Amino acid sequence: MWQRISAWQPPVPGIAEVFHARFVEHAYPVHTHDTWTLLIVDDGAIRYDLDRHHHGALGASVTLLPPNVAHDGRAATSHGFRKRVLYLDTSILGEDLIGAAVDHPSMADPLLRARVHQLHETLAHPADTLEAESRLVLVADRLRDHLDRPLTGAPPARGVADDLRDLLDAHLPDALTLREAADTLGAHPAYLVRAFGRRFGLPPHRYLTGRRVDRARRLLLAGTPAAEAAVRAGFADQAHLTRHFKRYLGTTPGRFTAG
Predict the structure, then answer these.
(1) Is the pTM of this model over 0.85?
(2) Whole-angstrom Cα distance, residue 51 to residue 161?
(3) Beta-bridge partners for 106
(4) How many CB atoms lie within 10 A of CB 128?
(5) Pair 244, 212: CB distance under 8 Å
(6) What's the gap between Cα 80 and its chain centre?
(7) Residue 259 binned pLDDT confidence (cut-offs 50, 70, 90)
(8) How many angstroms separate the Cα of 182 from the Cα of each of 47, 165, 188, 191?
(9) Which residues is 48 bridged to in the sheet?
């Protein structure tokens, strides 16, 4: 299996992480992020499921995956793929656009793709912060133009699954037991698990693991040693973090920060 990964935190408000990767065999498990995932494919193709619907990402398009919506990802062919990703805070694109992004995650827009590429090129030079901020504004404006369209259906009403997600987020990096969550929310544990799976496309424990991995990768990119990042992200130890990190990102914490 041949792969290459480069990741860093740029000094640009609103960009949580830049992630460049070449994968052949790695397959992402179903997971969510608390950020927008903006990606372009430079070589190959990606197959992914978003909110239980099948999609593909190709070089001519820009793909935008919304926060808090379950998705996975894998190579569409044995050739693998090479991608560049920006994780954008919800301060850049509001959560009111999530529904439109679920409906239309792929955008065949040459100008938008060119602007995303130019932003990546600028982010490779830390001294060009003003230029990166300016290019980010242009990208965000173009994305909003695409997402400002009627939804195919009304957004789902909040329910106990949303309350459970909020509860899990509020206690990070620690974890509640299912019984504690059930007592807090006044619902049967089995009902909580089923409701969460229907709403978000993955069980609560896998959601929590994904959140912890996201927290760990940000700590690592900020220079935190892996052993400390593991504990601060809610893992038992570095070995526990490494096991889950490899499953989600196809590499170890040490190689993730080595570029």
Answers:
(1) yes
(2) 15
(3) 63
(4) 16
(5) yes
(6) 20
(7) low
(8) 36, 12, 6, 9
(9) 55
Please name the amino acid found at residue 34: D
Q: Please answer whether residues 147 and 102 qualify as being in contact, where contact means their C-beta atoms are separated by less than 8 angstroms.
A: no
Distance CA 36, CA 109 (A): 18
C-alpha span between 133 and 153 (Å, rounded): 34
Amino acid at 62: V
The encoded tokens of residue 25 equal: 């065999």
The distance in angstroms from the start CA to the end CA of the chain is 17
Separation between Cα atoms, residue 211 and residue 70, nearest integer Å: 12
The tokens for 141 are: 């404006």
| pLDDT tens digits for range 99-136 | 999 999 999 999 999 999 999 999 998 777 899 999 99
Element (H, E) at 56: strand 53-57
Round to whole Å and give the CA distance between 23 and 29: 14
Is pLDDT above 80 for 2?
Answer: no
Does 78 score more than 70 pLDDT?
A: yes
For residue 135 the two structure tokens come to 């290019």
User: What is residue 258's predicted lDDT score, i.e. its pLDDT?
Assistant: 80
